[in-house]
Known about the structure:
The structure holds two protein chains of two kinds.
Chain A (H helix, E strand, L loop, with lengths): L1 H25 L32 H36 L4 H15 L2 H12 L3 H28 L2 H8 L4 H37 L11 H8 L8 H28 L1 H7 L1
Helix pairs in contact in A: 1-2, 1-9, 2-3, 2-5, 2-7, 2-9, 3-5, 4-5, 5-7, 6-7, 7-8, 7-9, 8-9
Chain B lengths: L4 H21 E6 L14 H7 L8 E3 L5 E3 L2 E6 L5 E6 L13 H12 L14 E8 L2 E6 L6 H5 L25 E7 L3 E6 L12 E6 L3 H9 L5 E3 L7 H6 L3 E16 L9 H10 L2 H9 L4 E2 L22 H10 L7 E6 L3 H16 L3 E6 L2 H10 L5 E6 L20 H11 L4 H17 L4 E13 L2 E2 L16 E2 L1
Parallel strand pairs in B: 1-10, 1-11, 14-15, 14-16
Antiparallel strand pairs in B: 2-3, 4-5, 5-7, 6-7, 8-9, 9-10, 11-17, 12-16, 12-17, 13-17, 18-19
Helix pairs in contact in B: 7-9, 8-10, 12-13
Amino acid sequence: MMRRANLLAGALLSGLFVLAALASFLWTPHDVTQIAVPMKLRPPSAEHWFGTDQLGRDIFSMVMVGARISIAVAIVAVGLGMIAGVPLGLAAAARRGGWLDELIMRGNDLVFAFPAILVAILITAVFGPGAVNAILAIGIFNIPVFARLTRGAALGLWTREFCMAARVAGKGAARISVEHILPNIASLLIVQGTIQFSLGILAEAGLAYVGLGAQPPTPSWGRMLAEAQTLTAIAPHIAIFPGLAIVAMVLGLNLLGDGLRDLLDPRLSRVAA
Amino acid sequence: MRPPLRAMVLAGALALTAGMANAQSSVRIGMQLEPPGLDPTAGAAQAIDSVVYGNIFQGLTRFTETGAVVPALAESWTISDDGRTYVFKLREGVTFSDGTTLDAGDVVFSFTRAVAPDSQNAQKGLFAQIEKVEATGPLEVTITLKQPQGSFLFNMAWGDASIVAPESAATNATNPVGTGPYVLKDWIKGDRIILTARDDFWGEKPAITEATFQFISDPTAAFAAMMAEDIDAFIGYPAPENIPQFQADPRFQVLIGNTEGETILAINNRQPPLDDVRVREAIAHAIDRKAVIEGAYYGYGTPIGTHFAPHNPAYVDLTHLSAYDPERSRQLLAEAGYPQGFTTTLKLPPPSYARRGGEIIAAQLAAVGIKVEITNLEWAQWLDEVFKQRNYGLTIVSHTEPFDIGIYGRTDYYFNYDSPEFRAIMAELDATSDPEKRKALLARAQEHIARDYVNAYLFQLPLLTVARKGLKGLWANAPAAATILAELSWE
């Protein structure tokens, strides 16, 4: 029952942000590029639900559009990681113990060895700040996560009878990987994808905070926080709302990930029961 | 054994009173930037002068708070009728902090070193007109100029023209030896520099015997340090949004003055379509300075219409040439062949005036059809991409050197501006020493660049100083980067 509550709360929270992000394409209460300096730093009111920022822009609208940027960056980055990481993991498992396995896994270790945010900063410093480079940086760090997860799960499956049977039937390693292994680890990947998605949101906010994410005037939660830093004493609302948005989004995705795991991984629920 | 409680209380009380007594003669000053070295004659960083000017090093003349030039190491001087020969009479009994005595030889050495081919001096232009420097007596120096130079005494007041001794000149960056009332006590790199008053100072003993310069680059940390009274004064306070809070707090005083920083929207004059003067004029008319100042600096800052400090007596108010007029702006763009506007880049360095001002200006330019792509850069990247490679369309920066209109005559400068007429005005100015004629020439120079719309001139960067109540003698204005410790005292 408790687990269902997790799933529900997670889905609701994340769904809310996805909805806000989608809605922002069609409508925001105010134009996020509309600067009205005389209206700056107004506290929340009926007209500006979350108040206005240091240049008089509507924070509610900025949080909505910021959700769009965060979600887009995280989805594409996680997608990149999956598209590159899963085949790599499958290949490594298929050639377990061979030189290809070694090459892929040591390459993985190499990427793992660096703190993710550091390399992200390196990439954006070399290629210039911007949303695309932030996506690339975060995406690259998702590759080893998925490669390792896939390989680990696939290794266990390769020794199972149905794989043996497939080999006896004359199927090649690639076909077995796609037809038999992949469907069996799909739920695992979905759960991991959700968790990585929340990490992607955090990473995007972190990069934007140090000025390496989406460039102004595109609103971004991380940069809103950075710009609010010196103003927190006089106008706390301009830090609170983007901060809350990050917390709620990441919390929602984590709850969703936990809930999905419990739902999709029958072994776990048996143990719990 | 029981701890001797009474002794401990006594010791505590003693420590407390010692601390209080100490507070009367010491001062802790916050600054944003740490100097790379401490030799003012071998570095362009303003932070060097902020620490050493007038404290460790002195020149023949010096600036006062109002920007006037008064005698320092030179007690007096005479100028020949043709304006080419200056005879300086040095003060008697001046000693360097290593015990050596100042004589005419040190002055000759200092200027010879500054103009030498291998000189590290960042402002060689100051000495460009010097033909020869001679010691004509133990305390008398005669300087002959190639041609009369009206600004020569002003130039001699710069930190870059400080007098150094041949024995110590090479090591001044780390172990500064000057004639000023203070010496370096300790330098904890990345954190603070401590200066202490010299026992053997030749002049009047200053009230402050020990000063700590604490380097705090982060505006939030600066706010916290000031609020906690970890520092006594912050010169060049970086977060204008906090000023009302300090003003309302009885523990603090706030000084709002001017710097020499002309904050401009610099334009790459060679990059099409910005090479068209009509396009540049359109940009100028599209900008509402009032909104920029309000948004970028919370209303502190004087609008400027040319590259000149408003507190300078020779300043001409030319803001009307680039008054906010979006209609005129659109019209000019149409005349120039861009009725639909165009797209360019806006590269912004880290200070908040640039980042906030940049977003406001981007919105204002968008209103007349000019789309700008903003890129936020760190200083090192900005210096490389914008200043060196000139790979930019627009940028926002504050030019903090005093009296720097001459940069418009430099064809190799990052504006990419090239005007023989302007260079002719500057050449004439350099050869003129009559104050009235100089003023007229300066007015012409100011108008020339304003009418050429070389850059869009925004506002004079204010100097915000927050200090604890009771600290007296702080400069409200900064005619040059300087923190004159000898003028400070606690009441």
